Amino acid sequence: MKAMTSKEVTKKVFNKEALFILDVRNETDFNDWKIEGENFEYLNVPYFDLLDGVEEILDQVPTDKEVLVV
What we know:
This protein is α/β, with parallel strands linked by helices. It has one domain (about 5-70). About 25% of the residues lie in helices and about 20% in strands. Helix 2 (about 25-30) links the parallel strand 1 and strand 2 (about 40-45). The longest helix has 10 residues, at about 5-15. The protein is globular, with a radius of gyration of 12 Å. The two termini are about 15 Å apart. The model has no long low-confidence stretch (mean pLDDT about 95).
């Protein structure tokens, strides 16, 4: 696991690179604003839904591309 800086994310936006974003904010916050990119995929699961573990969503998180947790 590696932290991604805002500069690195911005570069991905401009270069139209693929990125999967797991957004753990509340649904209303996610709907109000999110990091957008042409080749970005999203999964929004609020943090509080993951307190007992992430096993239920693991099959929805790709293993073949970078994943950014917001």
